[in-house]
C-alpha cells in the first residue's frame, strides 16, 4: 500500500517533476500544501492538507505533527531545526517511534565553502580592495600587500561540531591550521581538538578565527558575548553561519568599532531581514550576506535527491540508514 507524502516546499519545476515521477513509480501519493513556500527557512502553520499523511517533507507545524497519529516521519528541508529542537516535540516524537531528519547533508558543503571563502577573502584583503574600487579608486599597494596574511599555521575554533563543521575541518586541513571544535562531549578526533565548554576560556586567547555554527536554543542565546569576545586577541576574526540569536550583536558591534576585534563576517542576524537602519550595516569591518551561506544553484534538486534516498531506506524499514536522522 502506498504512502501519502505531504510537502509545503515549493520546488522548481524540474525538481518537482522528478519528485512526482519517482513517487508515482513507487505507488505513493504526493500532496502539496496550498500554502507551499519557496523559502526553505520559513516555517508553516497548521495545514488542512497534512492530516492523513504518513510523511511530511518541508516545514510542518510541530504541534500539528504531534497531534497526527498517522504521521511517521518528518524530514525538514533545512540544516537547522530550531522549531522542532525542543523536549516537548522530540521526546513524544521519539516515544511513538516516529522518525525526524534534516537536510544538513545538502547544506554542509555550501555552508563550509561559504565560511572558507570569507576567511580567504579577509586574509587576502579582498573586501578592503573592493571598497577602494567603489570609493575613490585608491591604489593602496603597500597597505593591502603587507596587511595580507596566510591561513597556514593559524588557529581556528569552531563553535559546534556537526555536519557543517566537520566538512569545514576537511576544507581547512590543507592549510595546516590548528583546529579546535566545541561540543558537549569532548573526545579526540583526527585533525581536530574537540573541547568541552569548560575549556573555552583557555582556548579563546589563542584563536585567529572564531567560527560560530551554533543552533538557536535557550542554552545558546548570546553565547558569543562581551566576556568571550573580550578574550580574543585584537587581530582575531569572527564568522557567524549559525543563528543570529547566538550572538550579542551589541557586544560584537562594540568590539569591532573599538578595534578589540579585527573583523566579522555574518550570514545570520537578529532580526532577519536586517532592517536598513540597523547599525550593524555600518559597523566597522563588518561584512554581511543575507542568510545565503547554504545557497546552491541545484538546491531543490539536491533536496529531492536527499529525500528520495532516505525514502528508499524508510520503505525497506532500514531507519538507521536514513541520512541526517535526528530521532
UniProtKB/TrEMBL annotation:
<dbReference type="InterPro" id="IPR006140">
    <property type="entry name" value="D-isomer_DH_NAD-bd"/>
</dbReference>
<dbReference type="Pfam" id="PF02826">
    <property type="entry name" value="2-Hacid_dh_C"/>
</dbReference>
<keyword id="KW-0560">Oxidoreductase</keyword>
<dbReference type="InterPro" id="IPR036291">
    <property type="entry name" value="NAD(P)-bd_dom_sf"/>
</dbReference>
<keyword id="KW-0520">NAD</keyword>
<protein>
    <submittedName>
        <fullName>D-2-hydroxyacid dehydrogenase</fullName>
    </submittedName>
</protein>
<feature type="domain" description="D-isomer specific 2-hydroxyacid dehydrogenase NAD-binding">
    <location>
        <begin position="116"/>
        <end position="293"/>
    </location>
</feature>
